[in-house]
């Protein structure tokens, strides 16, 4: 069994510094309207970043293994919050954007499907509380 341990330390006011298992750190802060100074990442947005990052790492690995030609790749992640407290994501849309001159759409769809359905643990966690919609978009570059 793998265990991840992080340490999140209060830095004053509404700011925290958090480590991750590799030792990297990042700041977490509230928006100014919630008493923060705006410097740092927001906790709920970090969840969306974790989701996109998890799936993105899967897809990037599969692009390499499948020897696919992709000039660029990004994931736009849109999370919709409930109106009542505690506000949680009730639905999330992931848009996978692939850019290139010679995109193999069938294999890229397969790479995304493998991540979404089999490999991405964060995706599986999100499924416990949110509806997930996946869109795959191809952008031809000449």
TrEMBL record:
InterPro entries in the record: KH_dom-like_a/b, OsmC/Ohr_fam, OsmC/Ohrsf
One family name in Pfam for this protein: OsmC
Highest taxon listed in the record's lineage: Bacteria
Listed name of the protein: OsmC family protein
């Amino acid at each position: 069994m793998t265990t991840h341990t992080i340490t999140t330390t209060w830095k004053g006011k509404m700011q925290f510094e958090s480590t991750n298992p590799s030792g990297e750190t990042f700041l977490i802060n509230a928006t100014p309207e919630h008493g923060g100074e705006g410097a740092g990442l927001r906790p709920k947005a970090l969840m969306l970043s974790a989701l996109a990052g998890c799936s993105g790492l899967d897809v990037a690995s599969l692009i390499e293994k499948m020897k696919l030609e992709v000039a660029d790749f990004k994931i736009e992640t849109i999370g919709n919050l409930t109106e009542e407290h505690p506000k949680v994501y009730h639905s999330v849309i992931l848009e996978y954007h692939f850019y290139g001159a010679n995109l193999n759409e069938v294999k890229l769809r397969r790479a995304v499907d493998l991540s979404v359905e089999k490999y991405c643990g964060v995706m599986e966690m999100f499924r416990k509380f949110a509806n997930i919609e996946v869109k795959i978009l191809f952008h031809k570059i000449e």
